[in-house]
Structure formats: C-alpha cells, structure tokens
Amino acid sequence: MTKLPIALACSLTALIAVKPFSGYSQTTPAELTITRFSGPAVTPSPACLAVAPTGEVFVGVDMIGSLGKDPGKGRILKLVDKDNDGKMDQHTDFAEVDNPRGIIVMGNQVFVLHTTFSKETGKATGMALVVFEDKDGDGKADGPAQPLVEHLSNTKYIQERGTDHATNGIRMGIDGWIYIAVGDFGFHDATDRSGKKLTMLGGGIVRVRPDGTEMEVFTHGTRNVYDVAIDPYMNVFTRENTNDGGGWNVRFSHHLQSGEYGYPVLFQHFTDEIIPALADLGGGSGTGALFMAEPGWPEKYNNVPMMADWGRSMLYIHRVTPDGPTFTQKEEDFIALPQITDLDVDGSGRLYLSAWDGAGYSGSDTIGFVVRAVPNNWTYKAFPDPAKASVDELIGMLKSASAVARLNASRELLQRNDQQGIAAALKIASDAQQPLYARVAGLYTYAQAAGKNGIGTLVELTKDAAIREHALRALADRKGLLADVPEQPFLDGLQDASPRVRAAAIVGLGRLGRMDAAIALLQTKVPASFVAPVKDKEGPHATPNAAIVLPHLAVRALVELHAVDAAVAAINGANAPLALWALRYMHDEKAVNGLIAAYQQSKDLKLKKQILTTLARLYKKEAAYDASWWWGTRPDSHGPYYKAVLWAGSPLIEKFLKKEALKADPARMELFRDLDARHRMEIAAFAPLKKTEPVAAKEPKVDLEKIKSKKGQVGKSSIEDVLLAVKQIKGDPAKGKILFVNQGCVACHSLSREEKMKGPFMGQIGSIMNRERIAESILKPNASISQGFATVTVTAKGNKTYVGFITEETATKVVMRDITGEVYTVKTADILSRKEMKTSMMPTGLANALSYEEFASLVNFLSQQKK
Question: Cα(first)–Cα(last) distance of the chain, in Å?
C-alpha cells in the first residue's frame, strides 16, 4: 500500500527557509564563472531584468508577484558594477512601477511593461507598455512614464487573480519592432499611442513600434507565453505553457508571422490546422528568454536560444536545426538557478540572470537575487556608448558579430537620422562579402530610415538570393507604406527554391491586401499530413511539421484578404484542399452559398464530404470578445470555438444539412451526427441515438463553499487556484494538527525542540513563511529545498543503496532518514558514492487527495508554529 500520508509529511522538507545563495555552481558549466551580483537586500523578488549595452543592469522588483493584488510594491532599479568584478557597487531607484514584467533599455530610454493601478481605488486598471527617459544620466527617470500602449491585458481577471496569465516579457528585434508576450488573459481594446485599438482572445505575440504606433498581432494561439527570444534573422522562439488538461507541460515554439498555434480551441481536435510547437518538454513554467549571439562566448553556448524555466529552476539551451521554413530542436540543461525569472546580456558579453528563489506567488521582500555569468577566459572590454560614438564607429558596430552591438548601433543611427550612416547601412546590406547577420542588420536599418523612399532599393535587393527573404519582409513590414509596394517581387518569391523566401512572400502578400494575389496563394500545395485527428483523440500539437507551414501561412493570408470569391471558385479544382481550409474561417453568406452550389455540382464523394465538413465548421462562429470572461486554467479545449454563437449564415447551413441528411441511409446519417458532435453544432436532428454526457457551453461558476470539503480537489486544480482558495479558506488549525500527527508528518518533522530532531524543524515555520509560501512549498516540494535537507543517494558496500536526507554526520558515519521515516546508519568507510539530487524526497502531487479545507487546515496549523 502506498504510504501517502507519510510521503505527504515529508513534502515539508521544502518548508524551512529558502536555501542561501550557494551551491548553484555545482551545475554551472565548467567553461563559465558565475558571481553573485546583487542579493535580496537590493533586489528581492526580481521578476525581470534588462541590461544596457554598456553594462548597467535594470531590475524589475515585483513584490506583488503573480497572485498579489496590492499596489505600491514594485520598482525598477538601476545597478552598476563600477570595477567590473561581477558585483553590484551602486544602485538607484530608477522608477516606481507595479508588477514590472518586462524591460528594454535603449539609449536613454527604458521601456517597461507593467500593471497599472487606480490611485483612488487601489485596484488594477490593466497593463501598459510605457517608456521612461533619463536624459541627464543620473540613474533616475526624468519624470512620469509616457504610455505607449494601454489596456494590454484583461483588467477583470488581473483584479480577481493577479497577473498569472497576463501580459509579460518584451524584446526588440533588429527590425525595430517591440515584441510583446501576451498570456491567455488576452486583452480588449488595447490602445496604442495613435489611438488604434486592438482586441485579442487568448495569448500570443503582439508587436508595436518604439513610438507606440502600428500595434498589430504577430502570432496567436499560445497559453502563457512569458518572453520571446529573437535571433539575428528575426526568428522568434518561445517556451510557453501547454494545455492544462495535459499536465501543465511546456512547449518550445518557433513563431512565424501570422501563424495560429491553436490554444485552446484547436489544440486537441483540430491540430491539422495549426502550426505545431517544436517540442512538448514536460512539466515546467517558461519565463525569460534570450537569443545569445555574442563573440567571446564558447562556441557551444553561442548562437542559441536560451530559455529560463521557473518551474524547473533551470536555464535551458535549445539546439535549433533548420527544417524548411522552420526548425527542429534539442533541449539541453545549461545553468541551474532557483526559480529563474529572466536573463539579458550586455555588449561586453556579460550575461545577467535573476532568480525568484522561492519568493512565493505573491512576492517577498527578503528573497531573490541576480547573478552574472561570463566565460572563464573573459576579460572586461568596455563597450562604447552608442550615443557618443562617431558614425564610423556605429557602422563598425553594425557589422559586429555582437547582436547587442548591431541592435544598439541601428537604433542610434535611426535616432540621429544621419544620412551618411543610412547610406553606409545600405552599403553593408548590399555587400555580398559581409556576413549575413551584418547584411540583415544593415537592410532593416536602411528600410526603417528610408521608409517610402527606400521601396525601390528594397525591390532591387529582392534580386539577391542571400537576402531576398529579408528584403521581402522589410517591404511588407509597415502597413502604412504598402500602397506603394509592388506585388511582383512577392509573386516571384512564391516560386523561389528557398522555403523561407516562399514563407516571406506568402506573409507579405497577405499584408499587401491585393485580392488578385489570391489565385497564386491558392496554388500552395497541402501535404498529406493535413489530416484531422481521429475522433475523440488529441492530435499532434507539438510534433514538428515543416510541410504544413507554407499552406498554413497561405490560408492565413487568404483569410487576411477575405478572398471568398477566389476560394469558392477553386472548390471544384486542383486547389480545393487549400480553398476549403481557408473557407473554414470565412463567415460570409457568399461563402455558404458558394459551398452549397459546389456541393450540388460535384460528383466527387470525397470532395462533397469535405464541403459538408466546411459547412459544419461555418455553422457557428466565435463570439466577439469583450473581456468579461476568461476560460480559466482548465479550459474546454474541444473546439472549434470556445463561446460559439449563431450568425446570419447559420439558418441556411442548417436547412441544407438537414435536407441532405434526409437523403442519407442510416449508415450515412452517422456522418452528420459526427459532424454535429465534432463541430458542436447542436442541431437537434443530428442528436446522437444514445444520450451522452452533456458538455458545458459556459464556463462553470465555482462555488468554493460547495467544493472546499471535496476530497481530491487539490489534485484537480492548478497550483494557482489552490493558493487562491487557501487565501479564502481559513481552515481549522485543530484539524490541521490532527492531520499532521495522524497522517504521519511527525515521522520526519518535529514541532518541539524537546523532541529528537529529524527532518526540517516545524516548530517555528510560521515565523519563517507566510501561509502562501507554506502552501506553495507543499505543492511544489522541489521549488526551494531547505539547506541540508536535499535528497541524497548513497551507494555502499554490499550492493546497498540508501535514499533520504542526512540527519547526522560524523567522521565515521552518516545517519539518513528515508521517505517512510526509517533511519539508516552507514559507515563512512563503506560509502562508495554519494550524490545530492535536485529534487525533494517527496514526489510532486502527493497532496492531491486532500480537499481544499483539509489543505487549508494543515497550512493554517503550520502557520501558527512560531516557537
């Protein structure tokens, strides 16, 4: 029988104070040197950071955390290492902001993404991307921030839950756009500086110009993407959460502009339609991201996406290998850091990383730190201040192997609008002898500076195979200039040998908005892998599929064009598969009539079935998003819509399908029933013969009073939901004491100093941790293992192995206690090997059988232990 109660008791090995800053170097790559840059006295709860090219570190302190709701606990700090020894020597409070979630430093501007609060009510009012300036260089913002984009998240749920699924990291690409990671709260009527409004249901990536204009959606359909890594060729990578029902895993994705990644409505039963992630990596929680491209770093750690995982306390490297228009990947452990949150690198090659270090879901004012990592052979070489550099020096930086140098040189040249520098940027772009990364940097710098006047030159650059992809991207990059951009280079690009060029051409044609391009787009071939998942079986949402990318992008372009007539005309031709795929998203009565007419004309049974499938898909559509709801942490992911509604074309579709169903024999009638179930049309005539369990059309309202005593509720909820419940349920400490004793917690923990010390002492835990941190440590025993209570594996003579924590050690013996409470004494002379594990002795999930009330009672009892 599983010893669940005792195992649960031993989860409390995580409950003693978070281990001090030490031991991380045991998993540091041998080629690197890591030093402590700042500690919790200066940088508690560091949620994000960014580094100026010259080395000044800006840290976002966030003592609200992801579930806190009280303002006045956040700030941006500027940290300086004057003697370059890897330790902060000076710091200033740069600006006061709540919930800083992302920072970019560019010249004297500091861009910050953060939660906004009402001074009158103290409640959150949304999230905003703002910019501060420090023109006098005193390390403090000159005045209030200037808003660039406001209302960048769902205010209702930020107020109710906090920012756990809100908008997060920001990073700038060499194309000059700021890319914003949007969690699946989404947003309604986000407003940029020009007054443009944008609404997005769910998560993805949004981008905006540095002046706060031209805001647009870049990709859509991710759950809780926290940050983006952008390589020198504008490949965008993320490590984002996956479907809750699948175990809170993380995915690694390559984002292609206009792509749909499927969460949650296409995530299980419509995966043929999405761009899949490159990998499902198992449990975790992705946070900060960086593409490392800096000279002086060891080759094997350079030119790679680096992805922080808060849940695994690890910075990962992803080895990406080109695969047509996309990539495949291989994940590798890189640097272990307790609850790592963010990372950034300066122009001298210094990598900075921030660690939450067990600060809890609501932050802490006593925990958290920042470290610096450099190669062992690194010596400090001052990076020139771009603002003080000559044009020749900036041009030299634009050709540098350093991505930091290229980006900052580009921004400075654009800021100055120096014609000599812009001409030099074009010369770099045109020079076949330059490395591709330099040519790309020169091209995007020129395109931004020249604007409309540079269109002709960019058209000429599309004739150069090496940079054709980027010339096409730059031509279609700014919607305000598209009226003057010719279509022919993009049509030519559709025939290019390079799938990356074809991808850029397809996306560009969608952005140009010329309806005559639809015929060319419809010729994009659909691969054999475009197959719907088997009924009631989840499809492959994280299996690389390079063949699906180009047709997927072509469909998105056709939808952008709203090319109904062209798609309908193609139904009975060779391009029917792509046309019907595109028509699934065109809720237009012309599309419905065209599909019905094509069905009646066709004698191809396979095609007729595909038309029926398309009509079933069009029967309903997604309700307009008004931010009054959110699908929660365990959304209904059946699809194809979350809040489905009827529209003007629905009666015509229903009438036609019923008429066709009446012609069907009993066997074929099953087709209509399957279409109804798969697409949730809910047409009574197609109801199943046997009653099935109904699926809730609306998100169920959780009545905490009714479920708080339900056994197993902890295991059915996300950690965040359990913590929110514990905040509302006080719990009975008397019951908690009974749980602690009767369930065997005493086997590993003492409450009184008079008792023999075993595992972590619980008699004063309430004076060390608050309720939330106690609860979090039980739920996530690996997050912050107590110093001295890590799990140790010892192998000894006689083919013996012991696993547990060490309770006593002398020169002659080691005393260990295992998860069942058994004590073993091992002679030092008999020990063959000894290894400290990265995980707690208790596996995660062993609190799952408890009710909310039981869990709250145990937490409440422990919180009262303050001896």
Answer: 35
Strand pairing partners for 255? 236
Under CATH, which architecture does the 36-372 domain have?
6 Propeller (2.120)
Return the closest-CA partner of residue 188 out of 562, 511, 697, 629.
629
586: phi then psi, degrees, rounded to nearest 5: -105, 90
Q: In which element (H, E) is residue 654 found?
A: helix 650-662
With H, G, I as helix, E, B as strand and everything else as coil, classify residue 470. Answer: helix
| DSSP reduced 3-state for 859 | helix
pLDDT of residue 8 exceeding 70, the answer is: no
Does residue 180 contact residue 222 with C-beta atoms inside 8 Å?
Answer: no
In this predicted model, which residue has the larger pLDDT, 813 or 133?
Answer: 133
Residue 693: how many CB atoms within 10 A of its CB?
4
Cβ neighbour number for residue 739 with a 10 Å cutoff: 22
CATH topology of domain 708-864: SH3 type barrels. (2.30.30)
Report how many helices (DSSP H) and strands (DSSP E) the chain contains, helices first. Answer: 24, 33
Residue 626, both tokens:
């008004």
Residue 487, classified by CB atoms within 10 Å of its CB into exposed (0-12), middle (13-18) or buried (19+), is middle
Q: What is the DSSP letter of 480?
A: G
In residues, how long is the chain?
Answer: 867
Confidence category of residue 719, pLDDT binned at 50, 70, 90: confident
Residue 67 reports pLDDT greater than 90: no
The residue assigned the tokens 């709203």 is: 562
CA distance 612 to 669: 13
- Alpha-carbon span 281 to 208, nearest angstrom: 30
Contact 339, 363 (CB under 8 A): no
Determine the Cα–Cα distance for residues 546 and 495; give it in Å rounded to an integer.
Answer: 17
Helix (H/G/I), strand (E/B), else coil: 352: strand
Helix (H, G, I), strand (E, B) or coil at 83: coil
Structure tokens at 426: 């074009």
The pTM for the full model equals 0.85
Residues 280-293, mean pLDDT to the nearest whole number: 93
Domain boundaries, the chain: 36-372, 384-482, 567-696, 708-864
What residues form DSSP beta bridges with 105?
110
Cα angle 47-353-177, degrees, rounded to a multiple of 5: 70
pLDDT at 760 > cutoff 50: yes
Report the b/e string of 344-381 with b at 16+ CB within 10 A: bbbbbbbbbbbbbbbbbbbbbeebbbbbbbbbeeeeee
